[in-house]
Amino acid sequence: MKEHQQYDSDPASPPRHDEAGAPDKSPTSARALKAGLYTAVTLCLMTTLVHVVMVFLHVAPPNPVSKRYSTQVNGWVYPLFEQNWRLFAPDPDSFNRQVLARTAHTDSDGSVRVSPWFDLAAVDNSAVEHSPFPSHTTQNLVRRAWSSYVETHGGSDTARSDRAVMLQKYLSNIAADRVAAHNDGGTFEFIQLRVITLPIAPPGTPVDSLPPTPTENRLLPWWKVTPRGN
Fold it and tell me: Tell me, what's a Pfam family for it (predicted)?
């Protein structure tokens, strides 16, 4: 018995095994695992704290801190964490918007091929119609991207602020992704949008009546995008 105890205490003895025959975990690996866990938890807490502070400065009334760090706050919040009060005071649309997109590709001989117009709004509407649980992204992504573009650009298509540039790129990327998903392998490097605003017909309007006259037919300039397709 004494010899067995001396053998276990010998520094040169083989590693111990548990009852199942597997070697015990070394203290070094256990410490490394614990340090990694602590680091991950710390990073999550720091990210959460930064997010809460940024959102608070965004929704709080203008103050010296929010004004001084407005660039950093807007860069963190927009476009993924935008905050508004429409949940409590909804402002439903009183018109329909038809968002159309077409693409252009330059061939090797220098000729330009322009695609037909593709109705982004019709694709979203067909995905929402008769769906008991329609996707929030399908319902609002294109619509909110366009409304944010109008808020920063007004009636002009010239971006006059960093946020306007960001939202213009945001809108063009959404349109390019939607078109590429239905493009059947076509390649394009430029995209153009046309937004037609139609008033909502009053209740009781006959189905076979003439379509309403557009209140706005806005053609945007060609935007260069990352080459899409094969």
Answer: DUF5819
